[in-house]
């Protein structure tokens, strides 16, 4: 199947209808809690992250409180989240930076977010989109897989896919589309054994029936 602009537009239309109103699965109350949750989400399920952050934020819900907690205690709080030592190191460094440079607030500027330890394009895009309501498409493993299978955007790196999605999807829908693609990847277009027979996009998907 040759994926034309018209087919891409139809893919976007179907996704927008099937996953209308889709929201992030991570639980948070402010930009700081979202930032920490997204850092913790690397190679970890959102369900596990929510358990971890609920426990952590009862003890330390601000950058200053996390710094006061100390690195060993922080490691212990996030131990069940995977890669906890590296994540704790980045979270501690980020909280120190937030306290020293930003008065304890999470910066809204995208480039400033990228300067924080442990914050890459995906995390910065999520915070920009969800916390500050600015158009952005964060490419996680689900978005990367679904975009490539649909050929909505193709690429060998998350950045290539991000740029492709920005071209294929109207800018005012970027943030919504991030959630559509994530939920589609979780529910239907799974990494192993995608549910192609049940997929609402099977008629406009070049990978339908033979996705790896």
The biggest beta sheet is recorded as: none
Helical residue percent band: 55-70%
On the 0 to 100 scale, the average pLDDT is 95
Distance N terminus to C terminus? 17 Å
Tell me about this structure:
The protein folds into two domains: 5-22 and 137-204, Helix-hairpin-Helix base-excision DNA repair enzymes (C-terminal) (Endonuclease Iii, domain 2, Orthogonal Bundle), CATH 1.10.1670; 31-131, Hypothetical protein, domain 2 (Endonuclease III, domain 1), CATH 1.10.340.30. Helix 1 crosses helix 11, helix 4 packs across helix 6 and helix 5 (71-77) crosses helix 6. The mean pLDDT is 95. The protein is elongated and about 55 Å long. It has helices at 5-18, 31-40, 46-59, 63-69, 71-77, 84-101, 110-114, 121-131, 141-150, 158-168, 174-187. It has 212 residues and is mostly helical. It contains eleven helices and no strands. Helices cover 57% and strands 0% of the residues. 39% of the residues are buried.
Keyphrases for this structure?
212 residues, mainly alpha, Endonuclease Iii, domain 2, Endonuclease III, domain 1, 2 domains, 57% helix, elongated
Helix and strand arrangement:
Elements: H1 5-18, H2 31-40, H3 46-59, H4 63-69, H5 71-77, H6 84-101, H7 110-114, H8 121-131, H9 141-150, H10 158-168, H11 174-187
Helix pairs in contact: 1-11, 2-3, 2-8, 4-6, 5-6, 9-11
Briefly, what is this?
The protein has 212 residues and is an all-alpha fold. It is built from eleven helices and no strands. The chain folds into two domains: 86 residues, Helix-hairpin-Helix base-excision DNA repair enzymes (C-terminal) (Endonuclease Iii, domain 2, Orthogonal Bundle), CATH 1.10.1670; 101 residues, Hypothetical protein, domain 2 (Endonuclease III, domain 1), CATH 1.10.340.30.
